[in-house]
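[Meeting: bench + compute handoff]

Bench side (C.D.) handed over the final construct sequence. Compute side (W.E.) agreed to return the predicted structure before the next meeting so the bench team could plan truncations. Sequence as handed over:
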Amino acid sequence: MTINQHPRPLIDIGLNLADKRFKGEVHAVLERARDAGVGTCILTATSESTCHEVIDLCERYAEEFPNMLHCTAGVHPHDAKHWHKTSASVIRDLASHKVVVAIGETGLDFNRDFSPRPEQELAFEAQLELASELQLPVFLHERDAHKRQLEILHCYRDHLVDAVLHCFSGDKKALFNYLDLDLHIGITGWICDERRGQDLQQMVNNIPLDRLMLETDAPYLTPRTLRPKPKSSRNEPAYLPWVLDSVAEFRDESAEVIAHATSTTSRQFFRLHS
């Protein structure tokens, strides 16, 4: 059975495959993903160095896993302190690779403040300008910075082709504000968490189906509904069906409908070709 014939074809829009926890196991991880019906993965770049790494991974495994791997190019707010005067030029050149389908992961993170806030905003705005120039969608991060991120996005939204708020875990006000900006929303294994995910479980049915996308954010956020419980705490794309099933449960819709809808939406968003 090919991926296109799989009863629940899925796209994982957020996979940190360059993470050291996948070292030496990339091939096996991709095989398990493919066997689980995950036909496409968007690899997340978080710094200039990981941009090179995810592009290399896409190209290295292209022959054995055709059309499966694509990636972003950008700098995460945690790494914004390393943004320099030539960073925009570097990201622009990297984005010219055919495997790059979005700018990011970029945004604001006022929860941990690993980079000073003014430097986060500088890097964020520079990447929004770049996405506008290149007409590429944006892969967004936001934590405890909803008000400021929304203000900045308002200034650029008319010039952006598309943007997705990845790994959404905010409140209902934030959700509706982002939807009012015509953003897409990425849902992770957070929704599978009976403790931290209760608010998201109650809100997920407010996301229009054509604005919803699924992701693992692996190796993070392993679904707590996963059975049997794996020996390793490392998440991987093969576990995306557990995210799908939780989304289906809390939206009171069939998993098949959501699988096909989110895959269609993701293909359109990232301009992917079958």
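W.E. noted at the follow-up: Residues 213 and 266 are 6 Å apart (CA to CA). C.D. will use this when planning the next construct.
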